[in-house]
Amino acid sequence: MSIPGQFTLHTTDGQARRATLTTAHGEIQTPIFMPVGTQGTVKSLSPLDLEEMNAQIILGNTYHLYLRPGDELVARRGGLHRFANWKRPILTDSGGFQVFSLQSIRKLSEEGVEFRSYIDGSKHFFSPEKAIDIQKNLGSDIMMVLDECVGYGADREYTEKSLEMTTRWAERCRTHHPRGTNGQIMFGIVQGGFFKDLREKSLDQLRGIDFEGFAIGGLSVGESTKEMYDILHHITPLMPADKPRYLMGVGTPLDILEGVAAGVDMFDCVLPSRNARNGTLFTSQGKVNIKRAEFAEDDSPLDPECGCYTCRNFTKAYLRHLYMAKELLSYRLNTYHNLYFYLDMMKQVRASIENGSFAELKRRFEAAYATE
Ligand code: GUN
Ligand code: ZN
């Protein structure tokens, strides 16, 4: 019998890992990309669409679902899986990042963080325990600890104090929800900004707590690609090899491949879904901006190498027309394609690790996306 949190490493190719993570709603095959469904929906898509493109797990958000419709309302409906009719695994972020990134007015203390609702301005308070209670109400398979994501440019002194508080918060989260409770597993989040020794300090403190997995937070917050890759390659190999590693909020296709090369197993990002809605589409030939005039009478598919519903059935001319007319179908077809592209890339990544050709796959994508 497999138990939630069980992580089985199948094979490696360099530092890249091919593994299986067991959750209460089934297994996920890694490396994996998790589509973002902040409000309990991946914008413009139905669960049927997501199942059809083989999304294995989606994200939900503690911060948004707590404010609207309310986590207790969701709990009364049997949890987020039932409420949204999504039968596969769900990971929920703790709200830490959203409070810190969306909020200018907030008060931070050892006890937790006070913030104002982006909907009606009302005051709210998240303690580490509260963030976990909300995620228990939502019934997610993977819960994230409450953390402070320090902004880019934070100095060493602030970053060190912050990561130490994040560790104490992480301890409180684990104590509030001991390992093995109702099938919900919990990941700690490594912080430490752009100081390598502080990243190590954060990791050393967190690995003393019995988490089922570890995330890297505080990246993609305004730094250069080089700075991000530097921290990524420094800290990932130091993370426990027998537990899943999750790079939060990253990124472009090349960022994800770089993460896989460093030994990361899980990724999420709004980029494919958000870009889809503003007409930026990822293809095997690089990024395409569908609003460009050159596509007005282009009767070829968006990406001839893509097997998705959009590419099999519609021309660039039609996709451009939908976009220019701001038709609702534009959001759906574009989102469908971009997420399919990301999920298909991860499928290729998993196959390449299995047959030892990951480096070659990575070079192919780097050639297509070289100009970015
Ligand atoms: N999403 C992207 N970055 C972060 C982070 O540092 N912390 C949390 N909780 N979520 C994130
Ligand atoms: Zn497609």
UniProtKB/TrEMBL annotation:
User: Gene that codes for this?
Assistant: tgt
Provide one Gene Ontology biological process annotation: tRNA queuosine(34) biosynthetic process
Known InterPro entries for this protein? ArchSynthase1/Queuine_TRR, TGT, TGT-like_sf, tRNA_ribo_trans-like
Family label: Belongs to the queuine tRNA-ribosyltransferase family.
Q: How does it assemble?
A: Homodimer. Within each dimer, one monomer is responsible for RNA recognition and catalysis, while the other monomer binds to the replacement base PreQ1.
User: What residue ranges are annotated as transmembrane?
Assistant: none
- Catalytic activity reported: 7-aminomethyl-7-carbaguanine + guanosine(34) in tRNA = 7-aminomethyl-7-carbaguanosine(34) in tRNA + guanine
Catalytic residues per the record? D93 (proton acceptor), D268 (nucleophile)
Ranges for domain tRNA-guanine(15) transglycosylase-like: 15-370
The task this protein performs is described as: Catalyzes the base-exchange of a guanine (G) residue with the queuine precursor 7-aminomethyl-7-deazaguanine (PreQ1) at position 34 (anticodon wobble position) in tRNAs with GU(N) anticodons (tRNA-Asp, -Asn, -His and -Tyr). Catalysis occurs through a double-displacement mechanism. The nucleophile active site attacks the C1' of nucleotide 34 to detach the guanine base from the RNA, forming a covalent enzyme-RNA intermediate. The proton acceptor active site deprotonates the incoming PreQ1, allowing a nucleophilic attack on the C1' of the ribose to form the product.
Q: Which cofactor does it need?
A: Zn(2+)
CC cofactor note: Binds 1 zinc ion per subunit.
Q: What is this protein called?
A: Queuine tRNA-ribosyltransferase
Sorted UniProt keywords:
Glycosyltransferase, Metal-binding, Queuosine biosynthesis, Transferase, tRNA processing, Zinc
